Amino acid sequence: MSARLLVVEDEPLINQAVTDRLRAEGYAVRQAFTGPDAVAAAQEELPDAVILDLMLPGFDGIEVCRRVQSQRPVPVLMLTARDDESDILVGLGVGADDYLTKPFRMRELVARVQALLRRVERAEVLARRDSPVLSVGSLSVDPARRRVVVDGREVHLTPTEFDLLTALAAEPGTVLTREKLLLDVWGWADASGTRTVDSHVKALRAKLGGHRVRTVHGVGYALESPDPRP
Length: 230
Ligand code: CA
Description:
Blueprint: E1 4-8, H1 12-24, E2 28-32, H2 35-45, E3 49-53, H3 61-71, E4 76-80, H4 83-92, E5 98-101, H5 106-129, E6 134-136, E7 139-142, E8 147-150, E9 153-155, H6 159-169, E10 176-177, H7 178-186, H8 194-208, E11 213-216, E12 220-223
Parallel strand pairs: 1-2, 1-3, 3-4, 4-5
Antiparallel strand pairs: 6-7, 7-8, 8-9, 10-12, 11-12
The structure holds calcium ion.
Calcium ion (CA) is lined by residues 10-11, 53, 55-56.
């Protein structure tokens, strides 16, 4: 069965172009043009993923994201007008899984949607497999239950932050390049997206404590284990 998508965009031409392209790719697409419509459509349609414009009449994409996610977790690709908007939204922990800046190529959009759906599938497989808990010092990541505990207290991460931390925790102390993280976590390889990695690392640091994620300038990131072996 083809995945069901919800396209939320108030600009009719963009909404139609995105919808047409995704239908041509074989997806079942429902359209919405305002914030309130989007929330109602998500309730009726139970989409597998939402493509969500940030600026909308009624209420904006952040509010749509919040209301839709509070009912059931669903992956969101947020469409923003500027690159730096994505950084701000990541910092706010809006709950979108990925961001795409306008104007974008349709091919890029399709690739991101495919990557998003693959990520969900992979998370479900991990949950079924009952993967072992990863421990790095006083930090533990439970991929099956999607829980993170730091110094004995549970930390709430967005789905993307969680996947990023899992990738880092799988190889503690090892520097993972931003390109590798982009491919492993987001499922796409375009180097223009490495700032996406940077923004999410920043958000992760704010929640875990800055000392846990080490930056290797120009290369990538490593999750620090507290007692590095000589
Ligand atoms: Ca708009």
